[in-house]
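Please, structure for the following, as tokens.
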Amino acid sequence: MRSGEVVARGFADYPALWAQGAGKLAFTTRSGVAPQPSPAPSEAYTLLVRAFPLDSGGPEIAWRVPSAGATPDGGGAFFPAFVQLPAPGRWLLVAQHAADRGCFVYTLPASGAN
């Protein structure tokens, strides 16, 4: 699924993984980066993923996801994100790296299955 300069993958498998406590999505961005050499990710090597609950007035949740390197074509960056939403419902996910930004509306079913 593409929004802006960000592609998000893994929504189809997310409910089953989420039910096991292992929610995972993958993001690619147009702006490329190399993997960061040090263990502490800096702003230049991270993707900021923010989640806003659309069904309730709950607080925003945010994750900083370190880059796993370049996309296979070398034109962008790859970010495997272990993102565990706190509850089922409709969510607005906003992913941003450098000037690349994408927004995704996602519904996590209450049953944890598609």
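The mean pLDDT is 85. The radius of gyration is 14 Å.
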